[in-house]
Specification:
alpha/beta, seven-stranded parallel sheet, 258 residues, binds nicotinamide-adenine-dinucleotide, 47% helix, Rossmann fold
């Protein structure tokens, strides 16, 4: 039985992979969720090769039951659940006016409903920890602090993540379950490759130019790496943050200031 156990959704690449690797390094046994077995296996292999413990869990987080099954997997495999990082998400780049209904549904289901399901699935398992409680972390974004042009539907889900964080923190504090969110900036993951490509297609600008324009506006002068987000998550789930709940915290190198 592991001492500390975390679930990370969307952990096969990008920010989720960075968080899974970091939490494993911090001593967590990690259930790594995503949609593609081979990608999850590769992350699990990296964790095990570094001396950690992890298991892959293929499943679509839009499906409420998948979230409950992941929690059960953590309990069956490792005996407890301390942390649930609801990281999985997708983007959609278009004007609000032109976004098709299916895309609105997909972005809301994957980004937002999955976070509701995480907040429904995790608390019962965390209450079994008694006073130790647990931590739930939601993925928001700087696009959840200000609506971004061509990312309106995405931004709406990321604003919603902050509302959920606040409400759930109020409801779960009694059980010492802390709920917080991270708001990354321009993270150099496959998601930003896609966003940049879609801007290029829709706005007829060179590939790479949109990402570069955003990076040029970062005070600390570089694009963000998944490890930058993982460092914040590592802190938020630790006892060092045991007096922090209901917050969504920008980790963006200096882009947004409210
Ligand atoms: N990249 C950025 O600049 C940035 C900035 C702010 C916030 N975020 C948020 O951080 C999170 C991770 O972003 P990323 O850049 O690593 O994205 P990414 O596209 O590189 O990786 C996302 C992962 O989530 C998985 N995923 C997508 N839909 C899923 C589903 N239905 N079920 C299970 N897994 C699913 C994908 O397979 C992928 O492995 C997202 O919520 C995103 O909105 C990203």
């Amino acid at each position: 039985m592991a001492d500390k156990v975390a679930i990370v959704t969307g952990g096969g690449q990008g920010i989720g992979e960075g968080i899974a690797l970091r939490l494993a390094q911090d001593g967590y046994a990690v259930v790594v969720n995503g949609r593609t077995q081979s990608k999850l296996d590769a992350v699990v292999e990296k964790i095990v090769a570094a001396g950690g413990e992890a298991t892959a869990f293929v499943g679509d987080v839009q499906d409420r039951q998948v979230n409950f099954d992941m929690v059960q997997k953590a309990l069956d495999e490792y005996g407890r659940l301390d942390t649930f990082v609801a990281n999985a998400g997708i983007d959609w780049v278009d004007t609000v006016e032109d976004t098709p209904e299916q895309a609105v549904d997909d972005v809301f289901n994957i980004n937002l409903k999955s976070q509701v399901w995480a907040l429904q699935a995790a608390p019962a398992a965390m209450r079994k920890n008694g006073e130790a409680g647990g931590t739930i972390i939601l993925a928001s974004s700087i696009a959840g602090m200000e609506g971004f042009e061509m990312l309106g539907i995405y931004s709406a889900t990321k604003f919603a993540a902050r509302g959920l964080t606040q409400a759930a923190a109020k409801e779960l504090a009694v059980d010492n379950i802390r709920v917080n969110a991270y708001n990354p900036g321009i993270v150099l993951t496959p998601m930003w490759d896609e966003i940049d490509q879609r801007f290029a297609d829709r706005k007829n600008v060179p590939v790479g130019s949109t990402r570069q324009a955003f990076i040029d506006g970062i005070l600390l002068g570089r694009g963000e790496e998944p490890e930058d987000v993982a460092k914040l998550v590592s802190f938020l789930v630790s006892d060092q943050a045991d007096y922090i709940t209901g917050q969504s915290i920008a980790v963006d190198g200096g882009i947004k200031f409210h």
